[in-house]
Amino acid sequence: MQRVVSSKPTKVRKREVYNAPLHVRSKRIVAPLSKDLREKLGIKRIRVRRGDRVLIVRGSFKGHEGRVTGVDVKRERIFVEGAVLRKADGTEVPYPIHPSKVLVVELDLSDKRRKELVERAKVGGQG
């Protein structure tokens, strides 16, 4: 029996975005850099990692700045310290934020491989 493949954009998007494997989803966890970082590093956006300092620019936590405490690759969301929801019983849960709704203010460049990645992206962007 032949399988019917849809050409509807919504169905194609669902198939490619929501059923993507984790190594593809992790590449979509990117956020724009602030103006001064953009000028300093020569790149426009970068993957968000735990330890980066970000400024939330959209949503109910707009204007809040904090460190990234976690990254959920499966749901494509990040968690920022201080951006929490208070449940009815008083416990606090971290609020998931889409990486496109934040601005990277400071990078965690303690990792040697990340420094190399930034240098490689800078060279690739100019060529």
Verbal overview:
The chain has a 5-stranded antiparallel beta sheet, with no helix packed on it. The protein has 4 helices and 7 strands. It has 127 residues and is of the alpha+beta class. The protein has one domain (9-126): SH3 type barrels. The longest helix has 15 residues, at 112-126.
Summarize the structure.
The protein is α+β, with helices and mostly antiparallel strands and 127 residues long. 28% of the residues lie in helices and 31% in strands.
Provide the β-strand percentage band. 25-35%
| End-to-end separation | 49 Å
- What does the largest sheet look like? 5 strands, antiparallel
* CATH fold label: SH3 type barrels
| Spatial sequence of strands, sheet with the most strands | 6-5-4-3-7
Strand-pairing-aware structural class: alpha+beta
Number of domains: 1
Q: What global shape is seen?
A: globular
Number of helices: 4
CATH architecture: Roll
Strand-and-helix sequence, N→C?
Answer: HHEHEEEEEEH
CATH class division: Mainly Beta
Task: Give the low-confidence spans.
Answer: none
| Cα Rg | 18 Å
Proportion in helices: 25-40%
- Determine the mean pLDDT: 91
Write the layout of secondary structure elements.
Elements: H1 9-18, H2 22-25, E1 30-32, H3 35-41, E2 45-47, E3 53-56, E4 65-72, E5 77-86, E6 92-97, E7 102-106, H4 112-126
Antiparallel strand pairs: 1-2, 3-4, 3-7, 4-5, 5-6
